[in-house]
C-alpha cells in the first residue's frame, strides 16, 4: 500500500529544496505549483474564467497570463485571491487526485504531494501524513526577497497571504527546520525518510 505525504511550508521556506531530496531517492513528487501553471495555460477552462474575471489587462501580448501582474493583484487583495483560488484549485485537485491514483497503481511505497496551500485549501484531505518545512521569519523574508528579487513590502504581502507557519507547524505530523544549512536539512530529511520507510514495512 502507498502512503501519501503532503509536503508544505510557507512561501520560500524550502518545499522545493526538500522535494528535490525526495526526488533524489526516486520517490515521485507531485508539484502543485507546476500543475497550477499548466491548468491556466492559454485556452484551458481556468484560463477563460481568469480572463473573464480579471479582464484581458492581465494578459501578455502573447495571450498568456502575465503572472507577475496577476500576482500583484491577488497578493494585495484577499477577495481577488479567493476568486483566483476558487477557479484554479478545483482543477489542480482533479489533476493531483489522478496522479496519486496513477502512482498508487504503480505500487509506489511513498508518494509526495508538494502543495503550499495544503491546510488552507483542504488538500490535506488527500494525504495520509503531513510534513512542514519551516524557517524563522527573518530567513524566510531574506530568501524570498533574494530569490524573487522583490522588495520587503511585496515579500511581506506574499507571506501574509498564507496561514502562519506557526499554525502549520502545530498541524503537521513531521517537521523540518530549514533555517540552517542544506546539509542540516538533509540530515533531518534522512531521519524522516527512515521513519516513512518503516511505516511502509521496509526495514532496510
Ligand atoms: C498568483 C500567481 C499568478 C503568481 O504566480 P508566480 O509565478 O509569481 O508564483 P508561483 O505560482 O510560482 O507561486 C510561488 C509561491 O507563491 C505562493 N502562492 C501561490 N499562489 C498562492 C495563493 N493563492 N495564496 C497564497 N500563496 C500563494 C506559494 O507559496 C507558491 O509556492 C500564481 O501563484 C497563481 O496562479 N496562484 C493561484 C494558484 C495557487 O494557489 N497555486 C499554488 C498551488 S495550488
Ligand atoms: N538551507 C538553505 N540554505 C540557504 N538557502 C536555501 C536553503 N533552503 C532553500 N534555500 C533557498 O531559499 C529559496 C527558497 O527555497 P525553495 O524554492 O525551496 O522554497 P519553496 O518553499 O519551494 O518556495 P515557494 O513557496 O515559492 O514554492 C531558494 O532560493 C533556495 O535556493
UniProtKB/TrEMBL annotation:
SUPFAM superfamilies with a match to the protein in the record: P-loop containing nucleoside triphosphate hydrolases (SSF52540)
Highest taxon, organism lineage: Bacteria
UniProt catalytic activity: 3'-dephospho-CoA + ATP = ADP + CoA + H(+)
EC class (word): transferase
Molecular-function GO terms, alphabetical: ATP binding; dephospho-CoA kinase activity
A Gene Ontology BP annotation from the UniProt entry: coenzyme A biosynthetic process
Keyword Kinase: yes
EC number(s) per entry: 2.7.1.24
Pfam families referenced in this protein's UniProt entry, alphabetically: CoaE
CC per GO annotation: cytoplasm
Pathway named in the protein's UniProt entry: Cofactor biosynthesis; coenzyme A biosynthesis; CoA from (R)-pantothenate: step 5/5
Keywords annotated in UniProt: ATP-binding, Coenzyme A biosynthesis, Cytoplasm, Kinase, Nucleotide-binding, Transferase
Binding site for ATP: 12-17
Subcellular location: Cytoplasm
Keyword Repressor: no
Entry similarity comment: Belongs to the CoaE family.
NCBIfam families reported in the protein's UniProt record: dephospho-CoA kinase
Function in brief: Catalyzes the phosphorylation of the 3'-hydroxyl group of dephosphocoenzyme A to form coenzyme A.
Protein name: Dephospho-CoA kinase
Upper classification of the organism: Bacteria, Bacillati, Mycoplasmatota, Mollicutes, Haloplasmatales
Gene that encodes it: coaE
